[in-house]
Amino acid sequence: MTGYTMLRNGGVGNGGQPWVLRWSSRIRLTWLSFTLFIILVFFPLIAHYYLTTIDDADDAGKRIFGPRTGNELCEVKHVQDLCRIRESVSEELLQLEAKRQELNSEIAKLNLKIEACKKSIENAKQDLLQLKNVISQTEHSYKELMAQNQPKLSLPIRLLPDKDDATFPLPKSNRNCRLHNCFDYSRCPLTSGFPVYVYNSDDYPFGGSLDPLIKQAFEATVRTNVYVTENANIACVYIILVGEMQEPVMPKPTELEQQLHSLPYWRTDGHNHLIINLSRKSETQNFIYNISTGRAMIAQSTFYDVQYRPGFDIVVSPLVHAMSEPNFLEIPPQVPVKRKYLFSFQGEKIESLRSSLQEVRSFEEEIEGNAPADYDDRIITTLKAVQDSKLDFVLVEFTCKNQPKASLPTEWALCGERDDRLELLKLSTFALIITPGDTHLVISAGCAMRLFEALEVGAIPVVLGEQVQLPYNDVIRWNEAALIIPKPRITEVHFLLRSISDNDLLAMRRQGRFLWETYFSTSDNVFSTVLAIIRTRIQIPAAPIREETAVEIPHRSGKAAGTDPNMADNGDLDLGPVETEPPYASPKYLRNFTLTAMDIYRNWNSAPGPFHLFPYTPFDPVLPSEAKFLGSGTGFRPIGGGAGGSGKEFQAALGGNVPREQFTVVMLTYEREEVLMNSLERLNGLPYLNKVVVVWNSPKLPSEDLLWPDIGVPIMVRKM
Fold it and tell me: Which parts of the chain are coiled coil (predicted)?
């Protein structure tokens, strides 16, 4: 420490040491610099050499510390990415391989199933072929059995005698005439078509006495009737018109009888003849009563009980509209049900008026003593009491304001003109019809005229007298359109009429309107009804409908219609019946000519009205506008004879021996396109439906842009 101080002080203290110290300091600095130089130069060289020696000792491909270029560094990163991709792809390949093996296993199983199905199909084909052979053999055997067990049907032999048939049995009297003993069936075989020969009245003297209007109307009707023939040799029925006759030129009964017996085809007794005596007025006389008509049938509006032969003679309606059609626009509507008067009656009978002035006997006195000749006195008293009671509005008049119409004895004469009577009936809910007091007079022209007028304007007829024989009574169920009450129940009539419900009143009025329009209104209806009654009695089928060409309206079909949910599950019915080309022909004989014989009793006793009076097949009088269902076969087929339901029920109702039968829906429309389209769409999928015929009743054709639904069957649009 002292030396150091001395050095700093310039060598003060020891004399020659300052120089040595300065030299030592220099040597230290030089050594330190040299050492640093050696370290900084040789150490990197040694490290470089050492590192270079390590790289040379290793594999050239695994050098880590050796110098690398920039391209080599990039390749390393790329390789690492590829390695990662390779690992991912390897995993996916392994998964795909597993799936492939699984799919191959499933394919192998499916191939086994396909082979099994092919074997099943082959077996099914063999079974089907065997079944077809069995069915063919069965059908052949069935045909052989039917040919063996069913006799061959041959048409009846037509007997056309040129002279009297001596073997024809004679009844004890003409009063006992019925079809089985007074009608020659041999002239009317089932396949004859019911030919009718009509005499020309102008060729005989009594023709000049006929009412001109009735004669003209009758001749016009005959010219258009399908059953009338000009060949008298093949005729089944011969018709002669003898009335209504005019009073001044009316022949004597003996003269008319001789003229009838001199008819060329009278054949001594007049069998298969029909004498028609039409009445246009209420005062028509029964001049045939004193004439011997033999076995001839009589059709007129007035009968006595000793003259009328049930099931043989025919009670016809009066021919009011002889040469003119009724004006349907003037017919009152069917509603309201109840009208101003509960019931009404206008008439006059001199005998009843005289006896009504006397004191009326009680029921007890009548029971103890002799019964009165008729109940007109009690009827007058009872009806006047109802009118005076003011319980209901009723109108009864037993004296005519003007001169009454001519009438038969004990018959109530009509009062006033026809238009006046119709105006009163339009205001009446019920129309009283009092039958003649003479019980031997079963029907008169006056009663028939009252019935005609009541049905025409919708007044429900109330017939007092159960012995009456109303027009066409053997085929029309009059209890559905009129009330027939015995005269002794006159005191209960008021209670009975008030107890009938509105629904029953409307039903009876509708049925009465149908009967009037169908059987009473025109001369064509009267004549056709008379012929239909005779044809039905002798069980001859109606003539087929006369074909008329209709204009077809072109139309476009739109999209397919949806299926009605109610028909969504029809099972095997969706396929419909087996149809061939041409369509399967319906049997023409077995069903056609047994239809009338089998269905007469059922129709007359269960159906509301005569289903088969007209020559067009059975129909429903309650719903005349209901759509009809026609068979598609070529044979005769009933219309509207089936019950309601789906296509299967309609197919079954068309006939038990026609299993392949389809049906056609006929629809009537009048400018209601939207309703029509909806109705057509609901028919889609209906089993056994063959086609749809739309009858376009409007004079205006359907719009051109109207798209008709596609329901899977043809839709034919016809303009009538």
Answer: 79-148
Q: What is the full DSSP assignment across 476-525?
A: S-GGGT-EEE-GGGGGGHHHHHHTS-HHHHHHHHHHHHHHIIIIISSHHH
87 membership: H or E segment, kind and range = helix 70-149
Cα–Cα distance measured from residue 335 to residue 318, given in angstroms and rounded to the nearest whole number: 27
471: its two tokens:
């027009």
Secondary structure letter of residue 596 according to DSSP: H
| Category of 294 on φ-ψ map: left (φ > 0), alpha (ψ -120 to 50) or beta | left
| C-beta atoms surrounding 270 within 10 Å | 23
Question: b/e map of 84-100 (b: 16 or more CB within 10 Å)?
Answer: eeeeeeeeeeeeeeeee
**What span, in angstroms and rounded, lies between the C-alpha atoms of 656 and 396?**
55
Q: Name the token pair of 131.
A: 């079944």
E-only strand ranges, 125-263: 196-198, 237-243
Q: Which domains does the chain have, with CATH numbers?
A: 174-315 (no CATH), 341-351+371-521 (3.40.50.2000), 545-562+655-719 (no CATH)
Of 285, 205, 273, give the one whose Cα is nearest residue 243. Answer: 285
How do beta strands 395-397 and 428-434 pair?
A: unpaired
Contact 434, 453 (CB under 8 A): no
Q: Specify the DSSP element, H or E, that contains 129.
A: helix 70-149
Give tens-digit pLDDT for 486-527.
999 999 999 999 999 999 999 999 999 999 999 999 999 999
Output the CA angle 34-38-40, nearest 5 degrees.
115
Q: How far is CA 41 from CA 66, 125, 335, 346, 590, in A?
A: 21, 105, 138, 161, 138
Q: How far apart are CA 450 and CA 470, in angstroms?
A: 11
> Are 231 and 195 in contact, with CB atoms under 8 Å apart?
yes
Give me 341's structure tokens.
Answer: 């008067």
The pTM (predicted TM-score) of the whole model is 0.64
The residue count for the chain? 720
CB contact set of 561 (below 8 Å; sequence gap of 6+): 680, 681, 684, 709, 710, 711
List the one residue out of 453, 417, 411, 462 whose CA is nearest residue 320. Answer: 453
Rounded CA-CA distance 551/662 in Å is: 24
- Other Cβ atoms less than 10 A from the Cβ of 178: the count is 12
Look at residues 680, 663, 658, 672 and name the one whose alpha carbon lies nearest to residue 703.
672
Could you report the per-residue pLDDT of 431-460, keeping only the tens digit for each? Answer: 999 999 888 899 999 999 999 999 999 999
Which pair of structure tokens corresponds to residue 159? 């007997």
Contacts of 40 (CB under 8 A, 6+ apart): none
Secondary structure element (H or E) that encloses residue 560, with its range: strand 556-560
Q: Give the residue carrying structure tokens 């309601």.
A: 644
- CA-nearest of 209, 189, 308 to 251 is 209
Written as six digits, the tokens of 39 are 């370290």
Tokens of 276: 């028609």
Return the H-helix or E-strand segment holding 695.
strand 689-696
In this prediction, the residues of the chain whose per-residue pLDDT falls under 50 are: 1-15, 57-58, 60-62, 64-65, 166, 352-373, 568, 571-581, 587-592, 594, 596-645, 655-658
Query: Residue 433: which residues within 8 A CB-CB, separation 6 or more?
Result: 447, 450, 451, 454, 461, 462, 463, 464
Residue whose pair of structure tokens reads 């009671």 in the numeric block: 389
